[in-house]
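Researcher: Next sequence.
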Amino acid sequence: MANLSERMRTLRKSNGWNQEKTAQLSGIHVRSYRRYELGEREPGVMILWKLADLYGVSIDYLVGRSDEKGTQ
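Model: Next structure:
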């Protein structure tokens, strides 16, 4: 299974967004987003919720605990 940073990068690119656009849409500082995507930092629960909502996936999918994208 993929890890969080890989999933974030894949989801971002599949939407055609750059890191700046993704950070803006999710309300996260771009520097923080970059660090999450590089695997240098791990986001807290509130950020995970924002990202999962933005991408329309479950948190389990986002963090690599599941290969099922859907939210239930």
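Model: DSSP finds five helices and no strands in the chain. The radius of gyration is 11 Å.
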